[in-house]
Amino acid sequence: MLLTDLISEVQRKIGRNIILFQQLEGLLKYVLTFREIDGHISELQDIIELKKASISKHTMGQLVGQFTENKSQNESIRSADDHEEPYISFKFWIDNEEFYLNKKKSLSKLVQERNKLVHHLLLELDLKSIDSCKHINKRLDIQCEHIRSEINATQSFIKVLADGKKTMSEFISSDVYKQGLIIQVLRLNSLVLMLAKIAKEAARKDGWTLLHSASYLLKKHEPEEWESLRKSTEFKSLKSLMLKTELFEFSEEKTSKGGIRVLYKLKTDSGLAYA
Protein backbone atom coordinates (compact mmCIF):
# COMPACT_ATOMS: atom_id res chain seq x y z
CA MET A 1 0.00 0.00 0.00
CA LEU A 2 1.28 3.46 -0.91
CA LEU A 3 1.99 5.89 1.91
CA THR A 4 -0.74 8.26 0.70
CA ASP A 5 -3.29 5.45 0.72
CA LEU A 6 -2.15 4.36 4.15
CA ILE A 7 -2.52 7.90 5.50
CA SER A 8 -6.07 8.09 4.11
CA GLU A 9 -6.91 4.77 5.76
CA VAL A 10 -5.56 5.96 9.11
CA GLN A 11 -7.57 9.17 8.86
CA ARG A 12 -10.73 7.21 8.03
CA LYS A 13 -10.27 4.93 11.02
CA ILE A 14 -9.60 7.86 13.34
CA GLY A 15 -12.95 9.33 12.30
CA ARG A 16 -14.66 5.95 12.66
CA ASN A 17 -13.38 5.44 16.19
CA ILE A 18 -14.30 8.96 17.29
CA ILE A 19 -17.87 8.35 16.09
CA LEU A 20 -17.96 5.02 17.96
CA PHE A 21 -16.78 6.74 21.13
CA GLN A 22 -19.59 9.28 20.72
CA GLN A 23 -22.09 6.46 20.27
CA LEU A 24 -20.88 4.78 23.46
CA GLU A 25 -21.14 8.08 25.34
CA GLY A 26 -24.73 8.48 24.14
CA LEU A 27 -25.66 4.99 25.36
CA LEU A 28 -24.09 5.59 28.77
CA LYS A 29 -26.01 8.86 29.09
CA TYR A 30 -29.25 7.03 28.32
CA VAL A 31 -28.60 4.37 30.96
CA LEU A 32 -27.67 6.93 33.60
CA THR A 33 -30.79 8.95 32.86
CA PHE A 34 -33.25 6.08 33.28
CA ARG A 35 -31.46 3.59 35.55
CA GLU A 36 -32.52 5.39 38.72
CA ILE A 37 -35.59 7.59 39.06
CA ASP A 38 -37.12 8.96 42.26
CA GLY A 39 -39.99 11.36 42.66
CA HIS A 40 -43.68 12.08 42.89
CA ILE A 41 -45.59 11.22 39.74
CA SER A 42 -46.27 14.87 38.94
CA GLU A 43 -42.53 15.60 39.07
CA LEU A 44 -41.17 12.69 37.04
CA GLN A 45 -41.13 14.36 33.63
CA ASP A 46 -39.26 17.38 35.01
CA ILE A 47 -36.88 15.11 36.95
CA ILE A 48 -36.03 13.17 33.79
CA GLU A 49 -35.48 16.37 31.79
CA LEU A 50 -33.20 17.79 34.50
CA LYS A 51 -31.20 14.55 34.60
CA LYS A 52 -30.82 14.59 30.82
CA ALA A 53 -29.60 18.19 30.89
CA SER A 54 -27.13 17.50 33.70
CA ILE A 55 -25.76 14.25 32.27
CA SER A 56 -25.38 15.76 28.80
CA LYS A 57 -22.59 17.96 30.18
CA HIS A 58 -20.58 15.10 31.68
CA THR A 59 -17.30 13.91 30.21
CA MET A 60 -16.85 10.28 29.25
CA GLY A 61 -14.71 9.79 32.34
CA GLN A 62 -17.53 11.05 34.56
CA LEU A 63 -20.05 8.85 32.77
CA VAL A 64 -17.91 5.76 33.27
CA GLY A 65 -17.41 6.61 36.94
CA GLN A 66 -21.15 6.83 37.54
CA PHE A 67 -22.00 3.80 35.42
CA THR A 68 -19.52 1.54 37.22
CA GLU A 69 -20.44 2.68 40.73
CA ASN A 70 -22.21 -0.25 42.36
CA LYS A 71 -24.82 1.08 44.79
CA SER A 72 -26.98 -2.00 44.91
CA GLN A 73 -25.71 -3.16 48.29
CA ASN A 74 -25.22 0.27 49.80
CA GLU A 75 -28.51 2.05 49.19
CA SER A 76 -32.09 1.09 49.78
CA ILE A 77 -35.04 2.33 47.78
CA ARG A 78 -36.28 5.59 49.19
CA SER A 79 -39.85 5.93 50.40
CA ALA A 80 -41.94 9.06 50.15
CA ASP A 81 -42.14 11.41 53.13
CA ASP A 82 -45.85 11.99 52.53
CA HIS A 83 -48.69 9.99 51.06
CA GLU A 84 -50.71 12.79 49.48
CA GLU A 85 -49.46 11.86 46.02
CA PRO A 86 -48.11 8.60 44.52
CA TYR A 87 -44.34 8.34 44.72
CA ILE A 88 -42.16 6.28 42.40
CA SER A 89 -38.70 4.98 43.25
CA PHE A 90 -37.12 2.85 40.52
CA LYS A 91 -33.54 1.56 40.58
CA PHE A 92 -31.91 -0.96 38.26
CA TRP A 93 -28.57 -2.49 39.25
CA ILE A 94 -26.69 -5.71 38.64
CA ASP A 95 -25.97 -7.22 42.04
CA ASN A 96 -22.50 -8.44 41.15
CA GLU A 97 -19.42 -6.63 42.41
CA GLU A 98 -17.14 -8.46 39.97
CA PHE A 99 -19.23 -7.18 37.05
CA TYR A 100 -18.66 -3.57 38.06
CA LEU A 101 -14.95 -4.09 38.71
CA ASN A 102 -14.43 -5.64 35.27
CA LYS A 103 -16.60 -3.02 33.62
CA LYS A 104 -14.72 -0.21 35.33
CA LYS A 105 -11.38 -1.62 34.18
CA SER A 106 -12.55 -2.01 30.58
CA LEU A 107 -14.29 1.36 30.28
CA SER A 108 -11.55 3.25 32.11
CA LYS A 109 -9.08 1.93 29.55
CA LEU A 110 -11.33 3.24 26.80
CA VAL A 111 -11.47 6.66 28.45
CA GLN A 112 -7.67 6.81 28.35
CA GLU A 113 -7.61 5.62 24.74
CA ARG A 114 -10.21 8.20 23.73
CA ASN A 115 -8.19 11.01 25.29
CA LYS A 116 -5.06 9.81 23.50
CA LEU A 117 -6.94 9.53 20.22
CA VAL A 118 -8.39 13.03 20.43
CA HIS A 119 -5.52 14.92 22.05
CA HIS A 120 -2.24 13.04 21.59
CA LEU A 121 -2.34 10.82 18.51
CA LEU A 122 -0.50 13.29 16.29
CA LEU A 123 2.43 13.18 18.70
CA GLU A 124 2.79 9.45 18.03
CA LEU A 125 1.94 9.40 14.33
CA ASP A 126 4.67 10.09 11.78
CA LEU A 127 2.89 10.75 8.49
CA LYS A 128 6.16 10.34 6.62
CA SER A 129 6.73 6.82 7.92
CA ILE A 130 4.99 3.75 6.50
CA ASP A 131 5.86 1.74 9.63
CA SER A 132 4.37 4.40 11.90
CA CYS A 133 1.17 4.56 9.86
CA LYS A 134 0.87 0.75 9.83
CA HIS A 135 1.35 0.62 13.59
CA ILE A 136 -1.34 3.24 14.24
CA ASN A 137 -3.63 1.62 11.68
CA LYS A 138 -3.45 -1.71 13.49
CA ARG A 139 -3.91 -0.08 16.88
CA LEU A 140 -7.03 1.73 15.65
CA ASP A 141 -8.54 -1.59 14.54
CA ILE A 142 -7.91 -3.15 17.95
CA GLN A 143 -9.39 -0.09 19.59
CA CYS A 144 -12.42 -0.31 17.32
CA GLU A 145 -13.15 -3.86 18.42
CA HIS A 146 -12.90 -2.84 22.08
CA ILE A 147 -15.33 0.06 21.60
CA ARG A 148 -17.79 -2.08 19.64
CA SER A 149 -17.67 -4.71 22.38
CA GLU A 150 -18.62 -2.15 25.03
CA ILE A 151 -21.30 -0.66 22.78
CA ASN A 152 -22.87 -4.11 22.39
CA ALA A 153 -22.67 -4.73 26.14
CA THR A 154 -24.29 -1.38 26.93
CA GLN A 155 -27.02 -2.00 24.37
CA SER A 156 -27.71 -5.32 26.10
CA PHE A 157 -27.95 -3.46 29.40
CA ILE A 158 -30.47 -1.07 27.83
CA LYS A 159 -32.45 -4.01 26.44
CA VAL A 160 -32.82 -5.36 29.97
CA LEU A 161 -34.25 -2.00 31.01
CA ALA A 162 -36.66 -2.15 28.07
CA ASP A 163 -37.64 -5.73 28.92
CA GLY A 164 -38.37 -4.60 32.46
CA LYS A 165 -40.64 -1.90 31.11
CA LYS A 166 -42.41 -4.46 28.93
CA THR A 167 -42.84 -6.83 31.85
CA MET A 168 -44.32 -4.05 33.93
CA SER A 169 -46.69 -3.16 31.09
CA GLU A 170 -47.86 -6.77 30.82
CA PHE A 171 -48.31 -6.97 34.58
CA ILE A 172 -50.38 -3.80 34.51
CA SER A 173 -52.71 -5.48 32.02
CA SER A 174 -53.25 -8.52 34.25
CA ASP A 175 -56.18 -9.10 36.63
CA VAL A 176 -53.78 -9.41 39.57
CA TYR A 177 -52.99 -5.73 39.62
CA LYS A 178 -55.28 -3.71 41.87
CA GLN A 179 -57.31 -1.01 40.21
CA GLY A 180 -55.86 1.83 42.27
CA LEU A 181 -52.27 0.92 41.45
CA ILE A 182 -53.17 0.42 37.80
CA ILE A 183 -54.34 4.01 37.67
CA GLN A 184 -51.13 5.28 39.29
CA VAL A 185 -48.86 3.38 36.91
CA LEU A 186 -50.92 4.31 33.86
CA ARG A 187 -50.34 7.92 34.77
CA LEU A 188 -46.63 7.25 34.17
CA ASN A 189 -47.27 6.10 30.60
CA SER A 190 -45.30 8.33 28.24
CA LEU A 191 -48.43 8.97 26.16
CA VAL A 192 -50.32 10.13 29.23
CA LEU A 193 -47.45 12.32 30.39
CA MET A 194 -47.27 13.95 26.98
CA LEU A 195 -51.05 14.42 26.85
CA ALA A 196 -50.86 16.25 30.17
CA LYS A 197 -47.98 18.37 28.91
CA ILE A 198 -49.88 19.23 25.72
CA ALA A 199 -52.95 20.16 27.75
CA LYS A 200 -50.80 22.49 29.83
CA GLU A 201 -48.83 24.10 27.02
CA ALA A 202 -51.08 24.00 23.94
CA ALA A 203 -54.60 24.48 25.29
CA ARG A 204 -56.95 27.02 23.75
CA LYS A 205 -57.93 30.14 25.66
CA ASP A 206 -60.99 28.32 26.99
CA GLY A 207 -58.72 25.65 28.51
CA TRP A 208 -59.65 22.84 26.10
CA THR A 209 -57.32 20.96 23.74
CA LEU A 210 -58.25 19.18 20.52
CA LEU A 211 -57.73 15.44 21.01
CA HIS A 212 -57.07 15.01 17.28
CA SER A 213 -54.18 17.52 17.42
CA ALA A 214 -52.77 15.84 20.52
CA SER A 215 -52.96 12.45 18.77
CA TYR A 216 -50.87 13.79 15.90
CA LEU A 217 -48.15 14.93 18.32
CA LEU A 218 -48.17 11.55 20.08
CA LYS A 219 -47.70 9.68 16.79
CA LYS A 220 -44.80 11.97 15.92
CA HIS A 221 -42.93 11.98 19.24
CA GLU A 222 -43.90 8.59 20.78
CA PRO A 223 -44.30 6.26 17.75
CA GLU A 224 -43.48 3.02 19.61
CA GLU A 225 -45.86 3.70 22.49
CA TRP A 226 -48.51 4.78 20.01
CA GLU A 227 -48.15 1.54 18.06
CA SER A 228 -48.37 -0.47 21.29
CA LEU A 229 -51.59 1.33 22.16
CA ARG A 230 -52.98 0.67 18.69
CA LYS A 231 -52.36 -3.07 19.12
CA SER A 232 -53.58 -3.13 22.72
CA THR A 233 -56.46 -5.44 23.58
CA GLU A 234 -57.25 -3.56 26.78
CA PHE A 235 -57.53 -0.06 25.37
CA LYS A 236 -59.58 0.28 22.19
CA SER A 237 -58.68 3.94 21.74
CA LEU A 238 -56.58 6.76 23.13
CA LYS A 239 -59.65 8.12 24.88
CA SER A 240 -60.22 4.81 26.67
CA LEU A 241 -56.66 4.97 28.05
CA MET A 242 -57.21 8.55 29.14
CA LEU A 243 -60.48 7.66 30.88
CA LYS A 244 -58.74 4.86 32.77
CA THR A 245 -56.26 7.33 34.30
CA GLU A 246 -59.08 9.49 35.69
CA LEU A 247 -56.93 12.55 34.93
CA PHE A 248 -58.92 14.06 32.09
CA GLU A 249 -62.37 15.38 31.32
CA PHE A 250 -63.86 15.52 27.84
CA SER A 251 -66.22 17.61 25.80
CA GLU A 252 -67.46 17.77 22.22
CA GLU A 253 -68.20 20.56 19.80
CA LYS A 254 -69.60 20.71 16.30
CA THR A 255 -67.45 21.66 13.33
CA SER A 256 -68.54 24.05 10.59
CA LYS A 257 -69.19 21.04 8.37
CA GLY A 258 -71.45 19.30 10.86
CA GLY A 259 -68.85 16.92 12.31
CA ILE A 260 -67.83 16.47 15.93
CA ARG A 261 -64.56 17.48 17.60
CA VAL A 262 -63.46 15.76 20.80
CA LEU A 263 -61.83 18.06 23.37
CA TYR A 264 -60.00 17.27 26.60
CA LYS A 265 -58.32 18.95 29.55
CA LEU A 266 -56.82 17.98 32.89
CA LYS A 267 -59.27 17.71 35.76
CA THR A 268 -58.80 20.50 38.28
CA ASP A 269 -59.11 17.98 41.11
CA SER A 270 -56.73 15.41 39.59
CA GLY A 271 -54.19 16.04 42.34
CA LEU A 272 -51.33 16.07 39.84
CA ALA A 273 -49.43 19.33 39.57
CA TYR A 274 -48.39 19.18 35.92
CA ALA A 275 -48.07 22.93 35.80
TrEMBL record:
Domain of life: Bacteria
InterPro entries assigned to the protein according to its UniProt record, in alphabetical order: LOTUS-like
Protein known as: HTH OST-type domain-containing protein
